# Entry
Amino acid sequence: MARYWLFKSEPDVFSIQDLQNSRGKRTSWEGIRNYQARNFLRDDAQVGDGVLFYHSNADPLAIVGTATIVKAGYPDHFAWQDGHKYFDAASTPDQPVWFMVDIRLTQIFRHPVTRSSLLLEPDCRDMLLLKKGSRLSIQPVTESEWQAVHRLAN
DNA sequence: GCCAACGTTGGC
DNA sequence: GCCAACGTTGGC
# Structure
């Protein structure tokens, strides 16, 4: 049973266009350094799960497309590369603290689903994304939210 | 650029 | 275990 997720990314750092330009339209999703998000990646994300790709700190703020999990949670090896921006001495190959997944682009929406349109969509009113102060960068999404976003994108 | 909300750290 | 201080996120 596939699940659905929402991944946030600042387009100045990594945009959905960057994903499209990646080899195989595929990338690893490293650098998640929040325990709740880590748990989702480590324990719950499975190959085949759908991902809503959200541009945060952007103009416009929007879900700009979708991706698919193509590799389930595995240790974030960037955490044990000394000097790397994602280095964390607490994480080791024997006892990894942080995890990542791989995703592949599914589609770039012709009509991005803006935050303001999500705020008007009844089926999306419970989305964590829309809660004030919500900073979780990996969020579970319900099937009805997933479908509502696709309706809005068409 | 501002600042509220949040998660983490560390002194006690 | 508490909580103030701090750094970061992210909408506005």
About this structure: Chain A has one domain: 4-153.
